[in-house]
Amino acid sequence: MGEANVQQALKRLADLLDKNDIPYAIVGALALNEWGYQRVTVDVNVLLTAESLRRLKSEALGLGYVERFPGSRGLRDTEANIDIDFLNTGEFPGDGKPKAVAFPDPAKAAIRGQRVSLLPLPTLINLKLASGMSASHRLKDPAAGIGHSPRKRSP
Questions:
Q1: What is the DSSP code (8-state) at residue 61?
Q2: Is 88 among the domain residues?
Q3: The domain spanning residue 98 has which CATH number?
Q4: Are 29 and 5 in contact (CB under 8 A)?
Q5: Total domain count for the chain?
Q6: Residue 155 included in any domain
Q7: E-state strands within the chain
Q8: Which domain, by its residues, includes 105?
Q9: pTM of the model
Q10: What is the pLDDT of residues 55-95, one digit of tens each?
Q11: CA-CA distance, 120 to 105, in Å (whole number)?
């Protein structure tokens, strides 16, 4: 794992989630990086249940994390100055409208990589494709570098 602020924020957050036994899955560019597909990012994307997000906030707010705005589901790591975006189990990628693909429960779907919990690559790809196909502002998702050869094949 790199030493950039976003990787430091990821490590701190994963350690906090693990310490509090909160099931999670890293998604987005950092998950693709774990799978060996290089992608640059400046934030952390995490899949949680709504209840897990409430638990995390009760443990983290004021201790290196703040809400991005009052009542936000996003947080900011104040040490690394990095945004953390949360996706909720059961919601739909892209435009948020019902479709065949929904965000799974990380307690059931996540696998443990070398450093963090993340979704299996086929699940991550399906979510990215559904996102890009249903939301014009998410066109980068299907083109997330998945067509390129990875550095490695397992997290």
A1: B
A2: yes
A3: 3.30.460.40
A4: no
A5: 1
A6: no
A7: 25-27, 43-48, 65-67, 75-77, 82-88, 111-112, 117-118
A8: 5-138
A9: 0.85
A10: 999 999 999 999 999 999 999 999 999 999 999 999 999 89
A11: 13
